[in-house]
Amino acid sequence: MKKKVCLITGATSGIGKAASFELAKQGHEVLLLGRNQDKLLRTSEHIRSMVENARIESFCCDLSMMSDVKSTAEVIKQAVDHIDVLIDNAGGKYLDHEVTSEGIERTLATNHIGHFVLTLNLIDLLKKAEQGRIVIVSSGAHYSSTGIINNVLAPESYDGRKQYSDSKLANVLFAYALADRLSQTSITVNAIDPGGVATNFARNNGFVCWAKHWAYHLYKRELQTPERAAIAVVFLAVSAEVSGLSGRYFLRSVERESSKVSYDLEAQARLWKNSVALSGIDL
């Protein structure tokens, strides 16, 4: 297998950390992106202690802040001459309404807008790869979204669960719209639902919310370790089996139909237009 340069967001915990370790174990160069410098250092040291001659670099970035994402993208451009794989993995769920200092609701900012900005800023590095790949981590929660994705600024209009579902639909809509825009290049774009994973996801909303997340997936008998979930993400990132496939949705390692509204071209166009308006960048 030809060794690749792989950038992964949310690389210091859960699926992101497990995928980073697996990619390093396979001999790939791994660029870790996370918002906590101490966690980045510990993750880098852990991987190096477990993988001989691991090639690791880390970049501290708050994905909910566009200014931070843009400046970090410039640092990445100076650090590497190309990127083979970009894994848009980081995500959050905020039941309490929050708006960033840049005027974007935090769930939308973290789960979609930050990745929109990062991905578009790194497209030129992906074009320099022999066959660039973008893997966007979504969730089965996207099936419950109606397709109207808003930057909710009024607290009284905010529903944290709905906004999370909407942001996960945004991931899929973005994957399809970007795949279409890159169809004349060698870059592929796919979305994936890694399934229920035993992590600290949603722990920021309190123990009850976190426990309900675990209980739901335990009841469905689909709760899995981060290491097992990461296998599917790594499969999409580097496997020859999916080379050339683009604009697809996967449940773990198997291609599936995403929600009906995710294929709506008007919904894709609307999301793209709104994302450009919020971020100030376009492809």
Give a quick set of tags describing it:
8-stranded mixed beta sheet; alpha/beta; 283 residues; Rossmann fold; single chain
Q: How much helicity do the residues have?
A: 40-55%
Strand order of the largest sheet: 3-2-1-4-5-6-7-8
State the low-pLDDT regions, or none.
213-221
Number of helices: 8
Distance between the termini: 31 Å
The first-level CATH class is given as Alpha Beta
Largest sheet: 8 strands, mixed
- What is the helix/strand order? EHEHEHEHEHEHHEEH
Tell me what the CATH architecture is: 3-Layer(aba) Sandwich
Structural class: alpha/beta
Number of structurally distinct domains = 1
How many distinct beta strands?
A: 8
- Give the CA-based shape: globular
Task: Classify the fold: give the CATH topology.
Answer: Rossmann fold
Mean pLDDT: 91
Q: Quick one: CATH superfamily?
A: NAD(P)-binding Rossmann-like Domain
Explain briefly what this protein structure is:
The chain is 44% helix and 13% strand.
Task: Explain the overall architecture.
The chain has helices spanning 14-25, 37-50, 66-79, 106-127, 160-181, 207-219, 226-238, 265-279, and strands at residues 5-9, 29-34, 56-60, 85-88, 133-137, 188-193, 248-251, 254-256. With 283 residues, it is an alpha/beta fold. It has one domain (5-279): NAD(P)-binding Rossmann-like Domain (Rossmann fold, 3-Layer(aba) Sandwich). The chain has an eight-stranded mixed β-sheet, sandwiched between helices. Strand 4, helix 4 (106-127) and strand 5 form a beta-alpha-beta unit. It is globular, with a radius of gyration of 17 Å.
